Amino acid sequence: MKALSIFAMMFLFIGCGKGALPWDKSQVGIQSVKPAEPEAFTYELGNASCTTGHHSFNSLAATCEALLNNELNNDCVENKRLKLYDSHCSNS
User: Fold this and answer.
1) Residues in contact with 59: Cβ distance below 8 Å, sequence separation at least 6, in sequence order
2) Please, what sign has the CA dihedral across residues 84, 45, 78, 52?
3) Which of 19-23, 26-30, 40-44 comes out lowest in average pLDDT?
4) How crowded is residue 42: how many other Cβ atoms within 10 Å of its Cβ?
5) Model pTM?
């Protein structure tokens, strides 16, 4: 009896929404999706004695590679760059 009650409640919840049954295809609409906009990835890190300079890239992969490049970043704030790399690049 408990299973029947649960089934009835599930049917009621599924059937809710615009007064339609869950298998009523007349309620399905078509939506358009715009292409994703390009995204710039930028960073500039520093401290009182140095700065990496402003860097901008078209992809996360390029940004991650740059964060590890000491020469590009003026051998500056390696610990900050590694923290940024760990938080955004370690899974890419």
Assistant:
1) 41
2) positive
3) 19-23
4) 10
5) 0.59
